[in-house]
Amino acid sequence: MQGRTWRNIENATAEKIKTYLLDLGGTEEEVKRASEAWRIRFSDSTFTYHKKGTLYSTPSNSNDPAVSNAWNQIDSLVGPLMCFLQKIF
């Protein structure tokens, strides 16, 4: 399982994601860089939100379905990772 990255996340949405992860049993960790706003350990993945609006989740080495479910929840809050453009005639 590969990690995931979401970009251009508003701070209010990031706070909803943070609360969601903590409510599911995630634990807040100390940030490691000045660019990080928060860091949460959830299952065997670490979710790091950067002050410029990027959220990164490390891979889940155990393929824990809880991590996949969290990724799906984040997708529902911030939208899909990519949108395909369509030309409508």
Give a written overview of the molecule.
The chain is an alpha+beta fold and 89 residues long. The chain has a single domain, classed as TATA-Binding Protein (2-Layer Sandwich). 30% of the residues lie in helices and 25% in strands. The chain is built from two helices and five strands. It has a five-stranded antiparallel sheet with strand order 1-5-4-3-2, with helices on one face. Strand 4 and strand 5 form a beta hairpin. The protein starts with a strand and ends in an 11-residue tail after the last helix. The model has no long low-confidence stretch (mean pLDDT 90).
Task: Considering the chains and any ligands shown, give keywords for the structure.
about 90 residues; alpha+beta; 5 strands; about 30% helix
Helix-strand blueprint:
Blueprint: E1 4-6, H1 11-23, E2 27-29, E3 36-42, E4 45-50, E5 55-57, H2 65-78
Antiparallel strand pairs: 1-5, 2-3, 3-4, 4-5
Could you tell me the CATH topology label: TATA-Binding Protein
Residue-averaged pLDDT: 90
Largest sheet: 5 strands, antiparallel
What string, H for helix and E for strand, traces the elements in order?
EHEEEEH
Architecture, according to CATH?
A: 2-Layer Sandwich
Q: Helical amount among residues, as a percent range? A: 25-40%
Summarize it.
The chain is α+β, with helices and mostly antiparallel strands. 30% of the residues lie in helices and 25% in strands.
